[in-house]
Amino acid sequence: MKSTFQKENNLETPFVQLNSYKCTACWKCINICPNNVIDKSFLFIANTLINEQVIISNASECTGCFKCLHACTNDAISIYMPLDTKSKCKIVEL
Q1: Burial 19-51 (b: 16+ CB within 10 A, else e)
Q2: Would residue 65 count as lying in a domain?
Q3: pLDDT tens digit sequence for 17-45
Q4: Is residue 10 a contact partner of residue 56, using CB atoms and an 8 Å limit?
Q5: 39 lies in some domain
Q6: So what's the pLDDT on residue 65?
Q7: Going by C-beta distance under 8 Å and a sequence separation of 6 or more, which residues neighbour residue 75?
Q8: Which of 17, 26, 53, 93 is the most core-located residue (most Cβ within 10 A)?
Q9: CATH number of the domain encompassing residue 30
Q10: Is residue 47 in some structural domain?
Q11: Maximum CA pair distance of the chain?
Q12: Structural domain boundaries enclosing 62
């Protein structure tokens, strides 16, 4: 069973939310993010790697491009919009 060790404030931006249970540490989301919002996190106990996963390291820089969402093949990243963000969104007709 995979352990989770991140605080919830490291798992979301105004646009996306990470699910640490589904993250397999493939790092695809890190490599594709244009604003370096996502970073690697490692848990060591007695110099032994116990777990690795992604975290949100710079949430304020997330622009909602959703490149990370599309890069993740494990559904560990989902769309997340808190109530205060929804009021700022504009509906654009195409």
Answers
A1: ebeebebeebbbeebeeebbeebeeeeeeeeeb
A2: yes
A3: 999 889 999 999 999 999 999 999 888 88
A4: yes
A5: yes
A6: 95
A7: 19, 22
A8: 53
A9: 3.30.70.20
A10: yes
A11: 56
A12: 8-86
